[in-house]
Amino acid sequence: MRSQVGKDSRERVISLSPRAVSMVPELTRLWATTNAAAQELDSELTMPLSSLVQEAIRALEKRPFGERIKHLPDTRRPEAGRMTRSSA
Asked: N or C terminus of the chain with fewer C-beta within 10 Å?
């Protein structure tokens, strides 16, 4: 990969090395295969996984996981030093 200054100092022109260019067809094939597998998985779910992940990210941005743990009532927390099946 090469980086050069573009028309002005805010712009960078990136060029792939010959080796990287030779990898593009394989990377394109792998990307297509990965997308096909993700679509297959999505067809088995009640909602697309990517939508669920985005929803989880939004919820965690509103209220981080650590905050959720701190606000659990003591009755919902496993005993110290003892893991239960649901907390493992």
From this structure: C
Burial class (CB in 10 A: 0-12, 13-18, 19+), 48: middle
Cα distance between residue 14 and residue 62, in whole Å: 37
pLDDT reported for residue 9: 80
How much is the pTM?
0.53
Q: What tokens does 30 get?
A: 């792998």
Percent of the chain with pLDDT over 90: 59
Q: What whole-number distance in Å separates Cα of residue 60 and Cα of residue 7?
A: 41
Joined tokens for residue 31: 């990307």
Query: Burial code of 58-69, b = ≥16 C-beta within 10 A, e = fewer?
Result: eeeeeeeeeeee
